[in-house]
Amino acid sequence: KLQQIFIELTLHSEQEEYEREGVKWEHIDYFNNNVVCELIEKPNIGVLSILDDECIRPGDPSDMTFLHKMDQRCLKHEHYQSRADKQFHSDRTLPRNAFRVKHYAGTVTYCVDGFIDKNKDALHRDLSKAMYSCDHLLLKTFFIEGDPENTSLKRAPTAGSQFKVSVAELMKNLVSKNPNYIRCIKPNDKKKASMFDEALILHQARYLGLMENIRVRRAGYAFRQAYDTTLQRYKMLAGKTWPMWKGAPRQGVVEIFKELKIPKQEFACGRSKIFIRNPKTLFDLEDQRREALQRIATLIQAVYRGWVLRTKFLAMRWACNIFASNWKCVLQQRKFLKIRGAAVTFQSHYKGLVERRKFNAHMYRKRCEWSAHIIHKYYLGWRVRRDMRRQFKSVAGPVLVRAARRWLRRKFLLTLRDNLPTSSPTCQEWPPCSPLFRDASRLLRDLHHQWRCSLYRQRIEDNPKRKAVILEKLVASSTFSGKKACYMASVGKPFLGDSLRLADDKRWMATATATNDPLVVWSGHVMKIHRASGTAIQKSLAITSKAFLVLETKTLKATYRVSLLNLQAISCSTLRDNIVVFHVKAGSDEAGRKGDFIFQAPRVIELITKTKRVAQDIQRAAFTVNISNQTVVRVKEAQVQMNFKQATQQQDAPACKRAGNKIEVLV
What are 607-620's pLDDT values in tens digits? Predict the structure, then answer.
């Protein structure tokens, strides 16, 4: 087995690698020892398997019965010899109680006497248990099979099976590693110095397979490595590959060897590896690489030291600048604080003088007013007492009542003045009042509301843009209120109009000049629905003061232009969809002959409202907007029924599908 793994890991793998890499190679024949390994350990027909079967066979097995069974199963094997074979029946060198195996280097004779007993040689379980029950820890490790917890009722393995398992584990361990072989040659059998038995040494060299290994190594290459690894290791040896090679790794390695002037017979290029024949070439490469690395390291050190010193210099210069600026800042700050302190002191004294004068004048005025008020109050009291002294008993009650009412009315009006609601016409708030002034409060509330409405109307009249927006909202309300499901969501949103900003786009200016449509009322990206199939394609739609234009999204070139004089009506559904139909007069132009236009617009309320206003202005007549779930669409000369239906499941966008003379739209 060891010889076989040596063959597989050295000779066989070496020649397979040369053939796999496409390197020119003269194949060397060698003996494959796998046949002998199968003769010894193959199940059912191997020597060890037959020996185990004979040991466990009922009856009276013996060594001769084992040899007889070997002759029955292995007699035809080319590497097995026995007296039972006619070819060796008269061979006196082969005893009758023995057999021969033709190994790699020669034949070996095996006497079967004692095979059965040695193979059955197993320690009794009671002895194993007794040894495991001792107190010595080392003995317990030797007799683990005596552990009562791990006791097995199976038959104990034979010596042959144990040997086979041990060899299999050894082979598994060797295959998983990268072994190195050291072959020891015995010079003589007498253990003497300076004595070489040539026949013995030749026999060992032939038996160990050294002749084939030497032939393979002499004919092959001493070193091989992948192209990318070789390129990364030796790329600093060539100017074209340093510091970075952008081509294939193989071409980079060839450039390195070409610049180093290495002869072509010293290396070979495989499919994925480079092969170097002479170790001296590899040693020269390593020496040159070591010198190149020293040069690179010196360069890196120089650059790094320069960077360190420059960084230190910049840091020192920065520190000096910071210190100088901070010191100048401290000096200027001290000077400023000194000047500011003097200014603040002077200013505070002057302001104190002025304020004291004002305060003294104010206090004098207050004292004068208080004195005049006291004098006037006492005068009024004296005059009232003088005038009312005779009539006090008859007229005092009504006078007090009138005075109380005047005071209550004044308090009501002052409270109402301080708690008036906002100037918004939609505000419904009003301050509460006493039941005594309920009618007056209602009248004042109506007057206040009329005043607020007049102010709101005046603000609208003063702002033409806002007036235009209110008028558009009024048109939208009269058209869609209570009819279109998505109308309420658009009430609070302002109309954008030219959302694509075509007025600032040079592409649109060229189109507008060609079609004479300078003023854009509404623009946006829409999905134009094909009349025949119901499929949608993205377009841009522009409503001008004269026509509506269907534009290409990227170039803004006009695909269709239809004058608003030829626009008969606009139709839409009552559902929450954004599909609109433009009904065009038949035969008006090329676009009109194709039929009506169906669009899926993002701001459908704004689109219909602005189109309706512009169409009314240009046609000078009332314009029709049909809001219904059923409408008729003209496709060339045919009439197609278009039905809007509510979908059972929620979907992101309406789905259009045409079947015959019907178009169904699921919303």
Answer: 999 999 899 888 88
Cα–Cα dist 25/524, whole Å: 75
Band (333; pLDDT cuts 50, 70, 90): very high
Which DSSP string corresponds to 486-548? THHHHHSSPP-SBTT-GGG-HHHHHHHHHHT---EEEEEEEEEEPTTT--EEEEEEEEESSEE
The contacts of residue 625 (CB under 8 Å, 6+ apart) are 479, 569, 570, 571, 572, 608, 612
Torsion, CA 434, CA 439, CA 445, CA 450, rounded to 10: -170
Q: Sheet containing 547-551: give its strands across.
A: 558-563, 547-551, 536-544, 520-529, 597-600, 579-584, 567-572, 624-627
- Could you tell me which of 604, 593, 599, 539 has the C-alpha nearest to residue 566? 593
Is the separation of the CB atoms in 107 and 94 below 8 Å? no
Q: Of how many residues is the chain composed? A: 667
What are the tokens at 124?
Answer: 């009794």
The answer on pLDDT for 331 being more than 70 is yes
Q: Where do the H-state alpha helices sit in 26-86? A: 34-41, 47-56, 63-74
pLDDT of residue 220: 62
Half-sphere exposure in the Cβ direction for 573 (13 Å, CA): 20
Integer angstrom CA distances of residue 54 from 13, 256, 465: 39, 67, 114
Assign 370 to helix, strand or coil: helix
| Cβ contact 497:471 at 8 Å | no
The sign of the dihedral angle between the CA atoms of 595, 601, 606, 610 is negative
For residues 383 and 162, give the distance between their C-alpha atoms in angstroms, rounded to a whole number. Answer: 143
In angstroms, the CA 59 to CA 261 distance is 79
Q: How would you class 378 by CB atoms within 10 Å of its CB: exposed for 0-12, middle for 13-18, buried for 19 or more? A: exposed
The C-alpha atoms of residue 158 and residue 179 are separated, in whole angstroms, by: 30
> SS3 for 398?
helix
How many Cα neighbours within 13 Å face the side chain of 634? 18
Q: What is the three-state SS of 554-574?
A: CCCCEEEEEEHHHEEEEEECC
